[in-house]
Amino acid sequence: MSSPDAERWDARYRDAAIPQLLSPPELVHAELADIATLAPVLDVACGWGDAGLWLADQGADVTLTDVSAVALAAVEARASELGVMVNTVARDLATGSIPAGRWDAITCVHYLDRALLPRLGGALSPTGRLVVAVATTTNLERHERPSARFLLEPDELPTLVPDLTVTHHSEAWRANDVHEAWLVAQL
Ligand SMILES: C[S@@+](CC[C@H](N)C(=O)[O-])C[C@H]1O[C@@H](n2cnc3c(N)ncnc32)[C@H](O)[C@@H]1O
Questions:
Q1: pTM higher than 0.70
Q2: Which residue's alpha carbon is at the smallest distance from atom 27 of ligand 1?
Q3: Residue 2 confidence (pLDDT)
Q4: Which residue's alpha carbon is nearest to atom 4 within ligand 1?
Q5: Most buried one in 12, 21, 58, 157, CB count within 10 A?
Q6: Closest CA to 58 of 41, 80, 77
Q7: What does R_g of the chain's alpha carbons equal in angstroms?
Q8: What are the pocket residues of ligand 1 if the criterion is a CB atom closer than 6 Å to any ligand atom?
Q9: Are 167 and 182 in contact (CB under 8 A)?
């Protein structure tokens, strides 16, 4: 049985055109350009898959997960156009487990689930990196959406990964004109 999140997001993706161009999120591009070939990587709440597909194109062994089966079908179509192999897992991350693995990198971009973030560290490999980019409430100064419930409070992001060592945290207007909190953390 599909969840309310799945129904809502499936409807949104069904009505939208699949992006033609791959546009890796700025933080993922900056932080994970050195990803090793065949490194296991998990892209959570992947949407169209820009983070995970770019990493697959860099040679990583990427699994993309999202609640929307419609989004994941688009990810698979985009992967075959790009000529890369990826795994996709349809999962409601609010209620379900994190896809099994010991991930060298986990990316979480523009998806805020305050209960999920503290759980992601447990799925990292010993040298794995958690890479998170989520908009903050400052974003409302320029944009009505996302609404406040999908936005981080200033300086909140590091508090959501208390068991990890934060190696980077910054909050600023980014090249995409979104005010994003960025975080990179390890075990
Ligand atoms: C704003 S989009 C971001 C997508 C992508 N990470 C990006 O940066 O473009 C949020 C994504 O979270 C997914 N999502 C929403 N609720 C979810 C849930 N409970 N479990 C897993 N994914 C969920 C949606 O389907 C959507 O793809």
A1: yes
A2: 47
A3: 77
A4: 47
A5: 157
A6: 41
A7: 15
A8: 5, 9, 45-48, 50, 66-68, 71, 92-94, 109-111
A9: no
Count of domains in the chain? 1
> Could you give the CA distance from residue 7 to residue 120 in angstroms, rounded to a whole number?
24
CA distance 120 to 110: 15
Task: Of 29, 26, 31, give the one whose Cα is nearest residue 185.
Answer: 31
For 35, the domain range is 4-16+24-186
Q: What are phi and psi of 8, to 5 degrees?
A: -65, -45
CB contact at 8 A, 131 and 106: yes
Q: How far is the CA of 4 from the centre of ligand 1 (A)?
A: 13
Asked if residue 1 has pLDDT above 80, the reply is no
Q: How far is the CA of 137 from the centre of ligand 1 (A)?
A: 18
Residue 59 is encoded by which pair of tokens?
């040679």
Q: What is the CATH number of the domain that holds 59?
A: 3.40.50.150
- Span 63-117, pLDDT tens digits: 999 999 999 999 999 999 999 999 999 999 999 999 999 999 999 999 999 999 9
Mean pLDDT of the chain: 97
**What is the Cα–Cα distance from 1 to 127, expressed in whole angstroms?**
37
